Amino acid sequence: xxxxxxxxxxxxxxxxxxxxxxxxxxxxxxxxxxxxxxxxxxxxxxxxxxxxxxxxxxxxxxxxxxxxxxxxxxxxxxxxxxxxxxxxxx
Amino acid sequence: xxxxxxxxxxxxxxxxxxxxxxxxxxxxxxxxxxxxxxxxxxxxxxxxxxxxxxxxxxxxxxxxxxxxxxxxxxxxxxxxxxxxxxxxxxxxxxxxxxxxxxxxxxxxxxxxxxxxxxxxxxxxxxxxxxxxxxxxxxxxxxxxxxxxxxxxxxxxxxxxxxxxxxxxxxxxxxxxxxxxxxxxxxxxxxxxxxxxxxxxxxxxxxxxxxxxxxxxxxxxxxxxxxxxxxxxxxxxxxxxxxxxxxxxxxxxxxxxxxxxxxxxxxxxxxxxxxxxxxxxxxxxxxxxxxxxxxxxxxxxxxxxxxxxxxxxxxxxxxxxxxxxxxxxxxxxxxxxxxxxxxxxxxxxxxxxxxxxxxxxxxx
Amino acid sequence: xxxxxxxxxxxxxxxxxxxxxxxxxxxxxxxxxxxxxxxxxxxxxxxxxxxxxxxxxxxxxxxxxxxxxxxxxxxxxxxxxxxxxxxxxxxxxxxxxxxxxxxxxxxxxxxxxxxxxxxxxxxxxxxxxxxxxxxxxxxxxxxxxxxxxxxxxxxxxxxxxxxxxxxxxxxxxxxxxxxxxxxxxxxxxxxxxxxxxxxxxxxxxxxxxxxxxxxxxxxxxxxxxxxxxxxxxxxxxxxxxxxxxxxxxxxxxxxxxxxxxxxxxxxxxxxxxxxxxxxxxxxxxxxxxxxxxxxx
Lengths: 90, 363, 296
Description:
The complex is a heterotrimer of chains A (about 90), B (about 375) and C (about 300). Helices cover about 40% and strands about 30% of the residues of chain A. Chain A starts with a strand and ends with a strand. With about 90 residues, chain A is an alpha+beta fold. The mean pLDDT of chain B is about 90. Chain B is of the alpha/beta class and about 375 residues long. Chain B has a seven-stranded mixed beta sheet with strand order 3-4-5-2-1-7-6, covered by helices on one side. The interface between B and C is medium-sized, with 24 and 22 residues.
């Protein structure tokens, strides 16, 4: 089961609902929304599998449709990986 | 010519851990800051002051300038490590080995000469027969050649030892790609294959540096072929640190001299040792200096070179200049061109550049 | 100091301080002498034993260029960062050049392109590039009881997040000149410089209250991004801290150069500030609105 973790050189601050991240290797700064903020906050200490992440987030974000939330989570993970913020380890 | 300016006195102390700066007053420190800034040595001076636990005891205003330079140094290191990763990723995929030169090499190899060293370009060397492949791969990944003037393209590609400088489209970082240490048109002709045969592989895939003796020879050759010496004193401090670190192994000196003779680079090495001893009191065994005398030019020429370099290698600051400094710099500028190109190529080149410069102004 | 003495001191190198910045300026250009006489008479002088941060010269490039299509050059300790400008812009060149010196060589601070004013221990940061109205608004606030820290740059010490004041004459352009002259009767200006790249320009003298007794303990409490818009109502819109953070980066001189340190310093500032966009046409209403915000 692949696990999601925060890239080592990333630091972040939660500002209200949003999150500002700084990438230590590229020097890029990103402003991220509440869902990204929640994901980053959950994986900052330890890598988590997608299933565990899904369970945690579904309690915080209301959605009637589990499939929709799961797809949403997938797309966030992909986006944050491509930005260099998250790792997907096997 | 007075060599003992506050900056040089300070450097002699801090580079060799022999601190006798207690008689430095506020005005001396002001000159250290001003001269160091002009010589591109502010962050190196700051680094060694901090390493020797001297920074915190300086007056606040003096500290501020050094601390400013250290922040820039840290950012420089971070930015260029990232840059090297991007460049190597492209070259590695294209199957082109990437040999790092100068500042980036010192950082990636974790040498003492990385300390406080700032630089504005990444310099790399690739095999001559893979130069075009490297250039194409980099262009596909966002680098562009900065100078598209056909004459300048010919100057760089045919006569010099590099393709025109490249810049990254979005990061605006600069990359100089060389295929040899000296231009093909230069008087000195070291065998470039020998540099590749002895190069050192870094832990990271596809990244290389020159061997220890070759790093010193490259630094010496580069400095003493230069036309402009804004970084002259800085490069001399590089040499001081490189020699200090590598000569912990006593056999280094013999290896260095043998290699210099093998590659016909004895003359620039002679100057490097002479001027780093004079300016920075670099610790070179007397026997080695005596041995190097066989690489020296005739005595009268050494006297002329002293006249020129003892001025040009000082910081380009009003406090370090006398009435001959301007002339000395100009003569060395002409000398550097003569070293890179024979007269029959140089004269038309300089005429052509003046012509192009005149028309550029008119537009 | 008489004009005669001022001229002599400037010829040798006038040494003075602005906030914590120590400057030596040498110039024989009459416009520069007048500029200093009008606008810098209250600044503290330094003697020759004191450390100077920036040695500056404002001079004609050559004797030829002193008289034929006269030009002026700016030198920072022997380095010429700019192309020469028309001679009439000598005073402006000093001010722009000094801005360049500070923003290029002061990375012990996180520097934001902004105006900064202070009242009752609270600092207001007004970020914005030229043309958005920040200098005009800053001048109006300074005429309304706010202390000027700077009209051009926030210097935030990396070590402890404190804001350092560098209160210098406020540069005002074109219509802003008339607006501020109408806003307050007590305003003193230096000579107007015409035909600069930014139009007509003059510098407003800093009130003496701004130069005295800066405690250094004031902390930033509000960040207001001003947008002058003709015929608009005065409107404060709260902005999320995240959005304000990204806008501050865009207005920073050296956030990128400072790397991770810049991120950490800016985070601390933003965490403690309320952030707003301010759209306005009427300067009086904008100033009252800001005063009311401060009272809440």
